[in-house]
Amino acid sequence: MEFARTTKKMREISVVPLIDVVLQLLIFFLMAGTVQKFELVPIDPPVAESGKIVDEGNVVILLGKHDELILNDDLIEVEQLIPLITHQLKNYPHLVVTVKADAGIPASRLIEVMDYVKAAGGRNLSLVTQAVVGK
Amino acid sequence: MLELDRATRRPRQMNLTPMVDVVFQLLIFFMLTTSFISIESMEMSFPKAEDVKAAPQSVFRIFIQDDNHIFLGDKEVTINEMKAQLRLALFKDPERGILLLSGEQVNVQRLISVMDDINLMGGKNVAVADWQQGQGGPE
């Protein structure tokens, strides 16, 4: 038995529905998400309810999962922290020092860095947290 | 008079492929860079030494042990009891100093959670310090 063959040439597939869907997705991601700031090390900030949305200051300290200490995009040792930030804090004592610590690291490391910031003359500290999901 | 040739063909459908390419690039970019967690900050300020007038015995001491148990002074409390006592203490004296002492094994999430509760209860003068179990505080 022979089937009737289609005699027409194959038409081009219409891309219009595809564009519709892709544009919808694009608009969704544009509206719903916020663009993440790229960090040198991945940091998962601790969850807290009382956080406020604040811009990060000029002095940013990152405390990564694997003992990294990064000050304004430079990997440093703890001992270097005081001389490096004292200079900035001397001119602007009310400068906010932003500390981004990973939720999983020991609290003693965070406290150590906080003590150093205090010793360097810092008054205002901002600890980065993330909002509770579904708040 | 010169007559120009009119285009006799019907206008073709516009080629949409380059647009699809661009839109896909944008979509991939936004999918990779957007995040749905919202980043916030907890503000802290260190008091100047001369501003500290409170006598040490009036400081509200909260200990977080290595096994995450919370002690108020010598007494073990649950997180809700801690909040209740804190609310009471801060109602009497909103400026009361709070000293949060965390053990060596405590992680940042636990410390921040307790600080979060203190903030929610209205505590303003919070100090954080390291504490080794067995050196003072609850046994």
Describe the global form of chain B. Answer: rod-shaped
How much of the polypeptide of chain A forms β-strand, as a percent range?
A: 15-25%
How far is it from the N-terminal to the C-terminal residue of chain A, by CA?
Answer: 66 Å
Structural class of chain A: alpha/beta
Describe the protein.
The complex is a heterodimer of chains A (135) and B (139). Chain A is of the alpha/beta class. Helices cover 33% and strands 19% of the residues of chain A. A 5-stranded mixed beta sheet of chain A has the order 4-3-2-5-6, with helices on one face. The longest helix of chain A has 17 residues, at 16-32. Chain A is elongated, with a radius of gyration of 25 Å. Chain B is of the alpha/beta class and 139 residues long. Chain B is built from 3 helices and 7 strands. Chain B has helices at residues 17-33, 79-92, 108-121, and strands at residues 34-35, 39-45, 60-64, 70-72, 75-77, 97-102, 125-130. A 5-stranded mixed beta sheet of chain B has the order 5-4-3-6-7, with helices on one face. In chain B, a hairpin with a 2-residue loop joins β4 (70-72) and β5. Chain B is rod-shaped. The model of chain B has no long low-confidence stretch (mean pLDDT 78). At the A-B interface, α1, β1, β5, α3 and β6 of A face α1, β1, β2, α3 and β7 of B.
Summarize the structure.
Chain A is an alpha/beta fold and 135 residues long. Helices cover 33% and strands 19% of the residues of chain A.
Task: Compile the SSE list and pairings.
The complex is a heterodimer of chains A (135) and B (139).
Chain A: H1 16-32, E1 34-35, E2 59-63, E3 69-71, E4 74-75, H2 78-91, E5 96-101, H3 107-119, E6 124-130
Parallel strand pairs in A: 2-5, 5-6
Antiparallel strand pairs in A: 2-3, 3-4
Helix pairs in contact in A: 2-3
Chain B: H1 17-33, E1 34-35, E2 39-45, E3 60-64, E4 70-72, E5 75-77, H2 79-92, E6 97-102, H3 108-121, E7 125-130
Parallel strand pairs in B: 3-6, 6-7
Antiparallel strand pairs in B: 3-4, 4-5
Helix pairs in contact in B: 2-3
